[in-house]
Amino acid sequence: MRPTVNDIARAAGVSLATVDRVLNARPGVRKVTIERVNKAIEELGYVRDLSAANLARRRTYRFVFVLTEGDSQFQHALRETIEEVAQNAARERMAVETVLVPPGDPHHLARVLHGLEDDRAEGVAIMAPETPHVRDAIRHLKENGIAVVSLVSDLPNTDQDHFVGIDSIAAGRTAGVLMRRFLCKNKGKVLVLSNTMILRESVERRLGFDAALIESYPEIEVLPSIEWRDDPDRLERNVRAAFASYDDIIGVYVTGSGNRLFSRVLAPYRQDHDLVYIAHELTEHTRAGLADGSIDVVITQDIGHVVRSTLRVLRAKVDKTEIDAAQERIRIDIVLRENMG
Amino acid sequence: MRPTVNDIARAAGVSLATVDRVLNARPGVRKVTIERVNKAIEELGYVRDLSAANLARRRTYRFVFVLTEGDSQFQHALRETIEEVAQNAARERMAVETVLVPPGDPHHLARVLHGLEDDRAEGVAIMAPETPHVRDAIRHLKENGIAVVSLVSDLPNTDQDHFVGIDSIAAGRTAGVLMRRFLCKNKGKVLVLSNTMILRESVERRLGFDAALIESYPEIEVLPSIEWRDDPDRLERNVRAAFASYDDIIGVYVTGSGNRLFSRVLAPYRQDHDLVYIAHELTEHTRAGLADGSIDVVITQDIGHVVRSTLRVLRAKVDKTEIDAAQERIRIDIVLRENMG
DNA sequence: TTTTTTTTGAGTGACGTACCTCAAAAACTT
DNA sequence: AAGTTTTTGAGGTACGTCACTCAAAAAAAA
Q1: How many CB atoms lie within 10 A of CB A291?
Q2: Residue A264: half-sphere exposure toward Cβ, Cα within 13 Å
């Protein structure tokens, strides 16, 4: 049987009240007594029964996801997953809320974050680009004792507690090495498509991709990234231009969203070109692409895992308990048609 | 605030005791009353507070892992992981025990399983080959109300509640398709190595591998599996014979354990042969192989995930609650040096 | 209708922890 | 040594559920 507070009290030769004062850092206990209690805790290997504790303090963890709006399939899937996971999380005394902020408006985002300080949340999960305003807002949150984690998109230069997601450079490298192998020593050019290179992930993926591909395979030329910035016409124009300029395009790499659109634009060229198509993020569309063979590989991360992990990490931070690194590590998943499941 | 039993009692116009009788399926309640209570539960959306319930009934889940002995790196890693996870599981009122049985002795295994019936365990997790004795023992366990799940190695024709692991045919198919792509239209032979074809996984992996490889790539000949049955000499002999007979071996596929040994035996041939090496299970050794480039791909499953999932599923079965399919799905992981992490 | 059986209500004491009060004891000041 | 302050103890109530008892009420059987 696990030791209880009563066992600690007996072992330390003090009363229950004193043990309680020590455990919950309440004032009015001498240093010597505190040490005596801590020694007993140590010796008996006492660990507080968190579910009993949460029951007693009638606690519900209040967590908020702050996401930038956007209607890419990835964003949809993310929001949906949060919704689903939140349902189950409720059973474990967690109230999860989602707040959407317009993209490209750091002030708005910062205002939202500030608004969370006065006891709307005990923990905040953020997916947004890093800007000075955000850095500032995160510092404030932390100063108010609110746990902060970023998901999918890292915020490395902030006071955040944790990042839940994958290393984008490694993800790009993985894409690069698969491109190299799937190209089979053929010579030619690789098209890279990105909605915007403002997001750190896009840049880092491209970085890793180039490193893995060019380094060991100089016969390949990786073309400059085509950025389409939410403008379908620009995408179409640029892709058309690329195929007009080069007739030896043998691979395409899409570093972020836009697969749906891109696939359509690409279709007419696929008859003449034997293309290796590598994309990121497993969504409805990339899934279909894998199934019908139009996409060869998808590099992704398990969104469900990301969301669940985010909540576990937030709770651990709030409770000041250890996190299980092995469980919280997000893997870079390589998905082919065969292991799509 | 979540509704409590008291709210249900009030809403249904009955006493607490009656609600309790209904909730815990105790006798002495009329059908009409049961329905009234259930209606109230439905309407208020009541869900039993499991942590309060477990606290009250002073419950600790007793789970037993039954594994066949063996000193492959995979088995070691599995046992170690169970050990680790069990530590954390203790905080959630789960007492996890591991029982090892000698391989190839179905009677012993069956006896062990029978021994678990009389209240040693509420749930049993099994990794062992399926035999009539095992089927029988599992049926008995189930009849005694004990939850049974298999892990890693499926037991499809038994009364088990659940299987935690990957589809071996799909895993083999994944290996096959990667072999095909990495071979880059070269012609030649592929060596397949397996400790034993007695285990269903080995057979299924091979099946999937052949299907993916041969079907779309008939220029390749996949050689008959070399079985070494825990005999290093036999492995060495057979590998040597294979390389003596064929000078166009361009790929090797190891369907299970033996990578450590095989790598050593293979080493001298690697200078003359440009080989694609695909293996299963990410262990210390295959990890090192990926790192130094001697292994190209490892197909694996996250052992930590498997073990944690096993415990969650067992608990869900015992509690008769839903399992979160998305969370419990074990993925077929493709591991390259770049995404090893 | 009376008797028997079944169903229901009211209540109690756990489980392990939190959080509170009030009085007593111990530790300090002067 | 007296007073003051700090520290400690004893006790209670609560959280939401379980598991039980005993008596009362309702339903079914005679």
Answers
A1: 11
A2: 9
- Strand C: positions under 7 A of a protein C-beta atom: 6-21
A91 with B50: Cβ contact below 8 A? yes
**Which residue in the block uniquely carries the two structure tokens 């290796």?**
A276
Which domains are delineated in chain B? Answer: 5-48 (1.10.260.40), 61-165+303-330 (3.40.50.2300), 168-300 (3.40.50.2300)
d(CA A279, CA A254): 5
- Tell me which chain A residues have a C-beta less than 8 angstroms from the C-beta of B335: 334
Supply A139's token pair: 């510092």
Protein-to-nucleotide distance from the CA of A60 to the C1' of C25, whole angstroms? 39
Strand C-contacting residues in A 22-61, CB cut-off 7 angstroms: 23-24, 46, 48-49, 52-53, 55-57
By the 8 A CB rule, do B100 and B68 touch? Answer: yes
| Tens digit of pLDDT at every position of chain B (341 positions) | 789 999 999 999 999 999 999 999 998 899 999 999 999 999 999 999 998 999 999 889 999 999 999 888 999 999 999 999 999 999 889 999 999 999 889 999 999 999 998 778 999 999 999 999 999 999 999 999 999 999 999 999 999 999 999 999 999 999 999 999 999 989 999 999 998 887 888 999 999 999 998 877 888 999 999 998 888 999 999 999 999 999 899 999 999 888 888 999 898 888 888 899 999 999 999 999 999 999 999 999 999 999 999 999 999 999 989 999 999 999 999 999 999 98
Q: Which helix (H) or strand (E) holds B242?
A: helix B232-245
Identify the three-state secondary structure at position B271: coil
The residue behind tokens 């836009």 is A258
Which residue is closest to D6 in terms of CA–C1' distance? A28
Q: Is B333 helix (H, G, I), strand (E, B) or coil?
A: strand
Measured between CA atoms, the residue of chain B closest to residue A176 is B338
Q: Both tokens of residue A7? A: 């066992």
CB of A2 nearer than 7 A to strand C:
yes
- Chain B residues with CB within 8 Å of chain A CB: 2, 47, 49-52, 54-55, 84, 88, 90-91, 167, 170-171, 173-174, 176-178, 181-182, 184-185, 212, 299, 302, 304-305, 308, 324, 326-327, 329, 331-339, 341
